[in-house]
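Course assignment 3, question 2. Fill in each field.
Student: A.L.
Task: Predict the tertiary structure for the chain below.
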Amino acid sequence: MRRFAAAVALAAVALPLPAAAQLFGGDEAFQKEVRARLDKLEANAAERRLLIDLANQIELLRTDVARMRGEVEVLVHRIDTLEKRQKDLYLDIDTRLRKLEPAVPGGTTPGGEAQATPNEAKDYEAALNQFKLGKYPVAISAFEAFLKTYPTSPLAPSAQYWIGNSYFAKRDYKSALAAQQKVLSSWPDNPKAADAMLNIASSQEALGDRRGAQKTLGDLIQKYPASPAAASAKQRLERAARR
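Answer field:
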């Protein structure tokens, strides 16, 4: 008897409600029970669909997390590489700064290539000291003021060069590159031109233009082979070849 009742219930659930009602004589209580069971079946089906959707979303999230971890590892490696290159550059700058001789009033420029007036020497040294103190925006303003006051000074190429170095220290590599290119275009025969090319290569590398940086280093070696900057350029190219 119980088996028969179960079979009847299953048949009722399987049939559309109108058909089930006709089959069982339109019994209202029975129809309510059938509707209740149908609602339960629909709820269970919706729950299963929801669980499947959640499982798919979790799998997508896992894939995204794995991809993001890979990207983070790549970025960390790039940052480490850039920090090492920047340290190498600052060591090179520090070495050059230590070799700089203060401009003597009425004497020669730091490179010893021409005469500078006492006022030029004083203002140049004041601007350079701001760079040494790490006050790069102040140094830029001071050197720009120097160039406006003494546009034909023998110290002008050096002032423009330190504007570029100050921008580089601020990590404004596009401005650094533009400032050093002005050294090359305005004073191509000045000793600072070779140093400007070295800083241009550093700026290009910091901007991600590694090929352009290597070309600049090669051009530097060819154009100013006897300069200290050319020796640094050779070392950089050698290090790049070993990577």
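Instructor remarks: The CA atoms of residues 97 and 132 lie 8 Å apart. The longest helix spans residues 28-99.
Grade: pending
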